[in-house]
């Protein structure tokens, strides 16, 4: 947190140095998929050597999940084509307002603009041969999406899982789920609420994400039940995806 001198913000544990939440789904020889373009996308791509993307998926349109959209220009240049991007119609409306210069068709001089190929998410879809199942969630009163890729599900920024979505994550082996802090929050799961959801979904292993600086990595992970940990920047997980 800017200006904060709490124990976690001053921690020397590299797992406490957190950039904004995003995941990269790498299916060797088939697909490279990014979920959310955070304001830290340039730094994340450089740190983890992401040099190609086949598609970008958006969970929702809050600033910490979309403000890196302009960095797609680099991938346009490398790959010499527009970037397929997937979001709900409501999210596209917000993205087009925030990034008007990308979508209004007005020629710009200097710097260029990201070339985006917009696709509406209305149900399960396939990206570069990888099957993606959108999982409707509630982020406070905002409807957003999680995503399931085969045995792996990513449910960030959620405060509730609607009845119709539990079946969409049934049987996952690996789950990443929102767990902001211990105190109640209006738009995010607390740690206890995340653990309740994990218990119901019953994955083999689960990781909390989108933690606030209230949660130090080592101390919080130490009190988690077996099979549950805090995620951290650079974490690599093996999973099985469904392919078309």
List keywords for this structure.
8 helices, 7-stranded mixed β-sheet, Metallo-beta-lactamase, Chain A, globular, 22% helix, 5-stranded mixed β-sheet, 244 residues, 12 strands, alpha/beta, 25% strand
User: What percent strand?
Assistant: 25-35%
Q: What would CATH call the class?
A: Alpha Beta
Strand order in the sheet with the most strands: 6-7-8-9-10-11-12
- The CA-CA distance between the termini, in Å, is 42 Å
CATH superfamily: Ribonuclease Z/Hydroxyacylglutathione hydrolase-like
Low-confidence stretches: none
CATH fold label: Metallo-beta-lactamase, Chain A
Shape: globular
- Total E-strand runs: 12
The CATH architecture comes to 4-Layer Sandwich
Task: Quickly give the structural class.
Answer: alpha/beta
Number of helices: 8
Helix content: 10-25%
What is the alpha-carbon Rg in Å? 18 Å
Explain the overall architecture.
With 244 residues, this protein is of the alpha/beta class. It has helices spanning 41-47, 63-66, 72-79, 89-98, 100-103, 163-166, 191-201, 217-222, and strands spanning 23-27, 31-35, 55-57, 83-87, 116-120, 125-127, 130-139, 142-149, 152-155, 174-178, 205-209, 228-230. It has a seven-stranded mixed beta sheet with strand order 6-7-8-9-10-11-12. Strands 1-2-3-4-5 form a five-stranded mixed beta sheet. The model has no long low-confidence stretch (mean pLDDT 97).
